[in-house]
Amino acid sequence: MSANSSTVGQLLLQGSACISWKQDVEGAVYHLANCLLLLGFMGGSGVYGCFYLFGFLSAGYLCCVLWGWFSACGLDIVLWSFLLALVCLLQLAHLVYRLREDTLPEEFDLLYKALYLPLQVPLQTYKEIVHCCEEQVLTLATEQTYAVEGETPINRLSLLLSGRVRVSQDGQFLHYIFPYQFMDSPEWESLQPSEDGVFQVTLTAETSCSYISWPRKSLHLLLTKERYISCLFSALLGYDISEKLYTLNDKLFAKFGLRFDIRLPSLYHVLGPTAADAGPESEKGDEEVCEPSVYPPQATPTSLQQTPPCSPPPAVPNLPAPPSRARMSRPDSSILGEDSTSLVLEDFEEVSGSESFMDYRSDGEYMR
Which of 33, 77, 301, 349 has the most CB within a 10 Å radius? Predict the structure, then answer.
């Protein structure tokens, strides 16, 4: 150890080993190489920072190769500079390969920016979701049906990418489905993984549509394996279903001028389909129900006919109030017409009479 320290000390104390210094400076290639190396080592982090770093380093070491070959005439300078330039070029090729591998198709890239990026979903997690749907984009022509009521099995979950889909039941329009909304989220949530079912509504494309679809079994396996993806889909599906419920609620508000609570169990009967031959029967039922409130008051003038003509007519006693209209049972959805507003409001008052439900008018005032 002491011998080594003494050797280093002697080298430091001795003068320079160079007998004479060159009077002229190196050429422009040498200085350019050092400037490029300086700029390269000032690069930042990240993918684009690595591109900047290895790009300038590759150019700098290539300039060193040229300087060593034409000016310095040193084989070791040429070999080392060439080796370092080759390593930097290989690193650049690796970065380009990774970027190309991470590139998504245009439809999936727009979907990620619109739906998943605001939720800060990692790109690698999003790739697993896309891989589950096999990276296929399906299409629907105008007026082509995605699902038929009572016939199409619930065996997938689909997300609309472009276009507009009309949802109807027994020929009655319910609401629209717009881009980046799930097409069958209520059906997906209504069944357990081991259950089977069919659609209760019909979905028809109003314009040319494109969508992606996850097979039911494959998606359930992914949700079982990845807890983060399971929580993500639960949040997205819950938000989508609530948007559809509020859309139905807005439709009721425009129809009756009264905003219903979406928790009411009779909400389906308000929006229930109308059969073509149920209109006359429902009107006839309304007339029969209203008849008791018209005829009973006509029987009271008989007591006035027995009084003498010369005597003033006695004071007519308070007439008994006409019997209240009999409360009808909740009508079935097949006999509830568009014009049966009174029956619907009466059913709504019966349900909302309990303290567990509240409603509010359009001006924000709550009522029981």
Answer: 33
Mean pLDDT of the residues in the chain: 74
Sheet with 202-205, edge to edge strand ranges: 145-147, 202-205, 165-169, 172-177
Quote the strand ranges of 117-258, DSSP E.
Answer: 138-140, 145-147, 156-162, 165-169, 172-177, 202-205, 209-215
**Distance between CA 64 and CA 30 in Å, rounded?**
6
Neighbouring residues of 274: CB distance < 8 A, sequence distance ≥ 6: 170, 172, 336, 337, 338
Beta-ladder partners of 158: 213
In the chain, domain spans: 25-101, 106-256
Cα–Cα–Cα angle for 105, 107, 110, nearest 5°? 105
Q: What does the DSSP assignment read for 159-189?
A: EEEES-EEEEETTEEEEEE-TTSBSSHHHHH
pTM of the model: 0.52
Rg of the chain taking only CA atoms, in angstroms? 41
Mean pLDDT of 350-366: 41
- Spatial neighbors of 231 by CB under 8 A, at least 6 apart, are none
User: pLDDT over 70 for what percent of the chain?
Assistant: 63
106-256 carries CATH number 2.60.120.10? yes
CA count, 13 A, side-chain hemisphere, 271: 23
